[in-house]
Amino acid sequence: MFPAKNNKKTIWAWAMFDWANQSYNMVITSTIFPAYYVAITANKQQGDMVSFFGHEYVNTVLSNYILGLSYLIIVVMLPILTSIADYKGHKKLYLQVFTWMGSLACAGLFFFTMKTFEFSMICFGIASIGYCGGFVFYNSYLPQIATIDQQDAVSAKGFIYGFAGSIVVQIICFIFVLSPATFGITDDTLPARISFLIVAIWWLSFSLIPFYLLPKGMPNAGSHNYNVFTGGFKELAKVWHNVKHLPLLKRFLPAFFFYSTGVQTILLVAANFGAKELKMPEESLISIILIIQLVAIIGAYFTAKLSARYGNVKVLAAIVFIWALICAGLYFVINTNQFYVAAVLVGIVMGGVQSLSRSTYSKYIPQNIPDTASYFSFYDVTEKLSIVVGLFTFGFVESFTHEMRDSALVLDIFFIIALLLLVSLSVVETGFKSAKAIIA
C-alpha cells in the first residue's frame, strides 16, 4: 500500500536511491574508469587497438559498443520485467535485483588488468545493465509519490541528491588517486581499482535505505489476462496505442528520443574524449567532472524554478539549443581550458534536461493509474534506444575516421531535430492551454 503522495519520508527515501547509484555514473562512466581504461589499453606496438575475444577494435570504440550492447539488452529485458512487476507488485524487488547485479559487477572491476581484460569488460557491461535497469523501476515511483504540481521539484531533488552523493564518493576516490603514497600504495593501477570497489560498496550500502523505506508496489493482476513473460511487450504496444491518443505526449517522445541521443552519448563519451583527444591526466578529468556535478546541482534547481514560470517545453527547448551549441563547439576544442569552459556549460544544462524530461513525461501520462511501471518502461525503452543509437553512431564514425571530433559533430544533427520538434510541441501546447482557457 502506497502512503499519501508528497510524503516527505517517502520522497527522501526515493531521492536516496539517486544518492547511492550516481557514484557509478561519476566514477565509472565519467572520470576514473575512462581515464584508467584509455591508459591501460594504450601501448606502443598497437596504438589504440585492443583485442577482445580475438577481434581487434579501437579501444574507445569497443567501450562504446559494450555500453551500447548493455543498453540494448536492457531494452529487451525491461518489458518482461516491468510486466511481472506490474502483475505481482514487485517493483521494489527488481530495483533490488538490478542494484545487486550492478554493484557486484562494479566490485569485479577491482581486478581489471590487461590479463583479465575480457572478464573486466564483461563486468563493465553488467554494471551498466544493473545501473540503468534499476532506473526504470525507480522512475516509475515518481507519479505515485508526488502530485503533479510537485513532480518537477521532486524529480529535481532526486538529481540533486545524486549529484551531491557522487561528489562525496569522487572526493574519497580522489584522495587515493592523488596521494597513493599516503596509504603505502606502490602499484600504479591500484588507486583506480580501489575506487571501483569504493563505488560498489557505496552504491549497495546507501541503496538499503530506499529498499527498506519505499513501498513494495501495487499488484495489478486483475488487468492482465496474458502471459506475463510476453505481456510486457503487449503492455508497451498498449502504451504506444494510448500515446497516439495523447497529443502532447506523442509529440514529446520523438523530441525526447532525439535530444537524449545527443545528451546521453556526450555524457558517456566525454571522459574518453578528454583522455584520448586532449591527453588529459586523470586528476584533471576528475576536477572537471566535479565542476560539472557542482554546477549541475545549481542547474537542476534553477531549471525547476524556470519551468514553473515559463513552462517545461519552452525551458527544454532553450536547454536543447545550448546542448546543440556545446556539441558543435566540441569539434573545435583543442586544449584543456576550452574543455573546462565546455564542462561548465554541460553542467548547467545536464541536471536540468534530465530532471525536466522525467517530470514532463510524468505530467503527460495519465494520472492516478496503478501501472505506471509500464509507462515508465516505455520512457526508459525510448531513452535506452536513443543511447544505443548514439553510442553506435559515435563508435561507427570514430572507427572510420579515428577522430572523436567527427563523431561529436554528427551528434549535433540529433539536437537540431529535437529542437525543431520541441518548438512544434510548444506551439501545440499553447493552443491546448488557450482552448482550455476559453472553455473555462
Structural key phrases:
single chain; 440 residues; mainly alpha; two-stranded antiparallel ribbon; 15 helices
Instruction: Provide the CATH superfamily.
Output: MFS general substrate transporter like domains
Describe the main β-sheet briefly. Answer: 2 strands, antiparallel
Query: Radius of gyration, Cα only, in angstroms?
Result: 21 Å
H/E element order: HHEEHHHHHHHHHHHHH
Straight-line N-to-C gap: 36 Å
The overall average pLDDT, rounded, is: 85
CATH class: Mainly Alpha
Secondary structure elements and their pairing?
Blueprint: H1 8-30, H2 32-41, E1 49-52, E2 55-58, H3 59-88, H4 91-108, H5 117-139, H6 142-145, H7 151-178, H8 190-213, H9 228-243, H10 247-277, H11 282-310, H12 312-330, H13 336-364, H14 372-401, H15 404-439
Antiparallel strand pairs: 1-2
Helix pairs in contact: 1-7, 1-8, 2-10, 3-4, 3-5, 3-9, 3-14, 4-5, 4-8, 5-14, 7-8, 7-11, 7-13, 9-14, 10-13, 10-14, 10-15, 11-12, 11-13, 12-13, 12-15, 14-15
Structure characterization notes:
- With 440 residues, the chain is an all-alpha fold.
- The protein has one domain: Up-down Bundle (Growth Hormone, Chain: A).
- 80% of the residues lie in helices and 2% in strands.
- The chain contains 15 helices and 2 strands.
- The protein has helices at 8-30, 32-41, 59-88, 91-108, 117-139, 142-145, 151-178, 190-213, 228-243, 247-277, 282-310, 312-330, 336-364, 372-401, 404-439; strands at 49-52, 55-58.
- A two-stranded antiparallel sheet has the order 1-2.
- Helix 10 runs parallel beside helix 14.
- The longest helix is centred in the C-terminal third of the chain and has 36 residues, at 404-439.
- It starts with 7 loop residues before the first helix and ends with a helix.
- The mean pLDDT is 85.
